[in-house]
Amino acid sequence: METTGFLDSRELTLGENGEVEILVSREKKPGNWLQMTDKTNQVNVRQTFQDREGEQVAELRIERLDGGEDRPEPLSPEALARGLRGAVRFVAGTTQLFEQWSESFVPDRNQLPPADQAYCQAIGGDPNIYYFHSYWELAEDEVLVLKAETIPECQNWNFQLDNWWMESLDYRHHRIHFNKHTATYAEDGSVTLVIAHSDPGHPNWVETAGHARGTMCWRWIGAEQHPPVEAKVIKRGELAQALLE
Fold this sequence. Notes:
CATH topology of the domain at 105-244: Jelly Rolls
Shape: globular
Distance between the termini: 44 Å
Structural class: alpha+beta
Number of strands: 10
Radius of gyration: 21 Å
Strand content: 15-25%
CATH class of the domain at 105-244: Mainly Beta
């Protein structure tokens, strides 16, 4: 999943109606060109939302332009067996990858240090993103307070709460993430998020959605500076005083 070519929206030339065309090839092409190499094996597109409910999802289409045959060969027993073996290897490899990754976060429990950026890129991370990853675990009477004293100039920032397998919690029915657009800021421009099992009365409440532990991720997107994010666990009854400090 190594990134072999990368384009950011700020680099793209758009058409009159906001459409975009990208040419993916080995040889350099005019316009929006995405490079392929011998290691290229997939194309990833990330659409970052500030307000998912109010923004339009991109409609994407891919087309082969070199005149090659697009129709696949009939499925053979050998191809089916090869595909099934590949599916088994993918499931085993993916679960092992995220199990080991989550295990590596445990020593920094309830803190939010920068991730290994080189490793993030090696497994498909976005070069435009600076990642913070960690493990969280809360008792019923505890809350985790995250504070970003400084918000750098950036396209976006976001935080999301995940389960042990680094899968997003249920964002359809629970507020498990905040970003540059949805968060409420303090008068000094800082932002504080409160992770709690039930509503603590704070506008930036991140719901645990029935989980007692899991992983978490903070991203600075398109930022030149990557300031730290403070994290501390306190008793729920101490929250009001802690927010005044």
